[in-house]
Write a structure and sequence with these properties.
The chain is an alpha+beta fold and 74 residues long. It contains 3 helices and 4 strands, in the order ααβββαβ.
Length: 74
């Protein structure tokens, strides 16, 4: 249900759904070797020292086996 509005808006984009139990970072890294691009979100809030990313996005950026896009969201 969460993906349906995006599928309708961008029908040409292929999306593969996958549900797996485990920590977010480890699950994403285990899938990264088979992905063409991994997209992870980060909160759009800024701190006094600038934009920051969370531990999952940080781990994926440094250890993924594919390109990674970190996208801010609210």
């Amino acid at each position: 249900e969460a993906l349906e509005p995006w599928r309708e808006r961008f029908p040409e984009v292929r999306v593969a759904e996958h549900v797996e139990m485990g920590s977010a970072g480890q699950v994403l890294l285990s899938m990264s070797g088979r992905a063409q691009l991994m997209v992870v979100g980060r909160r759009a809030h800024r701190t006094a020292v600038g934009a920051r990313i969370g531990s999952v996005a940080h781990g994926v950026l440094h250890h993924a086996g594919c390109p990674v896009a970190v996208v801010p969201h609210d």
